[in-house]
């Protein structure tokens, strides 16, 4: 029976401790850059902007001394799928395609516009993957939660529960290994009683039914732990008075510059296509 | 038992962790006929909405959405995964699951609790299916037609058939799971209320 060790597969954060200009940035600056790059890679229709947002994360990775190959490894499983998409682009031409034909093979033609569409699609994926991969490599779990509070600090003034959201994310991070461990022990306990979660030849309905005695106890256990944690926090007067923070995340001048640069970039991607209409 | 904000936050965090673990392991998928799989990762979101209200549901939905975004961007498995590396597809639709499920639960709360939870599960699941497919259709129609193998013009029909075939079964599964968990939890909670000291497990 394989796939029973869930703990081994649970790796959302893959933070690597290091000292680099990128690591030293505050969580807010990292969040702002991540959002700016993700936004530009998904929303912008301009080829230049998509190229820039694909290249910039690689440049930052170089600065952070994160191996670029490591970031792009996630790109491999996408390649066959991109291939299929490319074939479809080539087979069915755009309705009003007047661009030059690069390659003709009988009735099938590859026009410049089709080639650009395929290349842009690939670049968009690459930009998304390397940006998010880089963020998780240079931001620790604690910073990820604290950063949420800092990013929403302006909204907190009008009543947005930034602190609560940050605490919830921190609790979620802390609970992930616990829940994975609970899943593992419940699966093993059920397997010892003859339950079958593997690739048995029995019908799907029976297999689906086998999940019920797995999901229910794990969720209940998580809720019980949460109640106990909440009680412990209330007993220590959490949330009664104004709370302080142990880790200081106010950055220096370089950090402010990085934040402003991210905002300028995000505004810029919408300005560029206006000025250089292609 | 009165609900404090600390309790609400911590319970949301725990359910967010359940959802995140389901999203990164094969546990989030039920095997189903014809090699298709049903997702049950959104069920913790619905449970949070039923137990702790719409804000908690939305917060757990955010955790679920961001987890699926990060997973799609760092460790994609299926051919559809890369399309979820777009926050408009993976995060935005998931924020509405909690609210819809809570609304459904409110409407039926006066009646039998497991029934209300089941309805909330079904409504939350249908919300997830419809909004995610809608977002996919709007943002990635070209790529999607490449993956499924149909022309862009035929996409709405194909997406609708997915919504009907997979979505309805997922809704039924979500109804069963939600009402089981909520029923079991409410039973434990009321038993603990009667015997406060005996139920201090773990």
Walkthrough of the structure:
The complex is a heterodimer of chains A (278) and B (202). A two-stranded antiparallel ribbon of chain A has the order 1-2. In chain A, strand 1 and strand 2 (108-111) form a beta hairpin. Chain A has a domain at 18-139 and 248-278. With 278 residues, chain A is mainly α. In chain A, helix 3 runs antiparallel to helix 4 and helix 3 runs parallel beside helix 13 (253-275). Chain A has 13 helices and two strands. In chain A, 68% of the residues lie in helices and 3% in strands. Chain A has helices spanning 6-9, 21-24, 27-43, 47-64, 68-72, 79-91, 112-138, 141-151, 153-156, 162-192, 204-210, 212-235, 253-275; strands at 101-105, 108-111. With 202 residues, chain B is an all-alpha fold. Chain B is built from eight helices and two strands; from the N terminus they run H-E-E-H-H-H-H-H-H-H. Chain B has helices spanning 5-24, 43-52, 54-74, 87-90, 95-108, 113-139, 141-148, 155-194; strands spanning 29-31, 37-39. Chain B has a two-stranded antiparallel ribbon with strand order 1-2. In chain B, strand 1 and strand 2 (37-39) form a beta hairpin. In chain B, helix 2 (43-52) crosses helix 8. The longest helix of chain B has 40 residues, at 155-194. The chains are: A mainly alpha (278), B mainly alpha (202). Chains A and B meet through helix 6, helix 7, helix 10, helix 11 and helix 12 of A and helix 1, helix 2, helix 3, helix 7 and helix 8 of B.
Kindly state the number of beta strands of chain A: 2
Q: Count of DSSP helices of chain A?
A: 13
Major sheet of chain A: 2 strands, antiparallel
* Helical residue percent band of chain A: 55-70%
Q: List the helices and strands of chain B in order.
A: HEEHHHHHHH
Oligomerization category of the chains in this entry? heterodimer
In order across it, which strands form the biggest sheet of chain B?
A: 1-2
Helix content of chain B: over 70%
- The arrangement of helices and strands of chain A along the chain is HHHHHHEEHHHHHHH
Q: What does the average pLDDT of chain A come to?
A: 79
The radius of gyration over CA of chain A amounts to 24 Å
